[in-house]
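Severity: low
Component: inverse-folding endpoint
Summary: output formatting inconsistent between runs
Steps to reproduce: submit the following structure tokens with default settings.
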């Protein structure tokens, strides 16, 4: 997580990105409002925004669309857990994974999930997350101050874990490069994307490009939406079935013209 300075001070800035913070683990209670949910949580030093709900996360929670009821969700850079808690409370039947390099942050997220009866949250170090695990939704206040190269590597890795049609919502300060990040994401994620030539002539062609753009601006922050394209084969199957719902797999389908855009999931 990133955004505002921690209330403890800039001198502890590097500890957000340390596996084992060197500051004293002084835990204390904090009352927060996460969307419409009133919660009591435990926070501590050496974890991002240890004294309050930071402004960037507040902006993300205010503008990210309501998550689906089901699916596998990821809070990338969880800190003490406000994003994971919100996901879990909004979608109690979903599977929520919280990831952070900071072991104290993971302990706090686990404890805050227990305190608030969010039994669908699991906390992981990055290396402990199965490499083949994929996600339907990612919310993140990413650690911008780790540096451009590390940030780009982090986002490339985890955004490529989105399932086809999956979405990510990131919050980034405008003066820390939000607009340039949108440009970089669009260029990088769409490198090597080939035009799908398998669609019948005259039919709607599912997008094979990632969609990246700003969906909100507030208090100096941008909320960025990233949508992974659907699997073209499954999208074509749905379009064909809609055109001729009575057709069997062995029967030839009638080609119909469809000029409307295929909606993203």
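Observed output (run 2 of 3):
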């Amino acid at each position: 997580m990133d955004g505002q300075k921690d209330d403890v001070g800039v001198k502890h800035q590097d500890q957000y990105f340390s596996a084992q913070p060197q500051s004293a683990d002084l835990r204390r209670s904090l009352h927060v409002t996460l969307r419409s949910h009133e919660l009591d949580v435990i926070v501590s030093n050496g974890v991002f925004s240890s004294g309050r709900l930071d402004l960037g996360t507040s902006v993300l929670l205010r503008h990210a669309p309501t998550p689906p009821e089901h699916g596998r969700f990821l809070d990338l850079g969880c800190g003490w857990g406000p994003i994971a808690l919100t996901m879990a409370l909004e979608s109690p039947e979903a599977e929520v994974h919280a990831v952070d390099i900071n072991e104290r942050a993971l302990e706090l997220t686990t404890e805050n999930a227990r305190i608030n009866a969010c039994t669908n949250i699991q906390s992981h170090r990055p290396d402990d997350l199965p490499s083949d695990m994929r996600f339907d939704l990612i919310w993140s206040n990413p650690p911008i101050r780790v540096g451009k190269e590390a940030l780009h590597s982090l986002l490339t890795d985890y955004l490529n874990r989105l399932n086809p049609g999956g979405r990510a919502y990131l919050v980034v300060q405008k003066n820390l490069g939000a607009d340039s990040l949108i440009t970089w994401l669009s260029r990088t994620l769409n490198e090597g994307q080939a035009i799908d030539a398998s669609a019948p002539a005259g039919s709607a062609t599912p997008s094979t490009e990632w969609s990246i753009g700003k969906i909100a601006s507030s208090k100096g922050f941008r909320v960025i939406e990233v949508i992974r394209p659907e699997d073209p084969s499954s999208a074509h199957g749905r379009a064909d079935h809609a055109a001729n719902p009575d057709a069997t797999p062995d029967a030839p389908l009638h080609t119909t013209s469809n000029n409307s855009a295929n909606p993203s999931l």
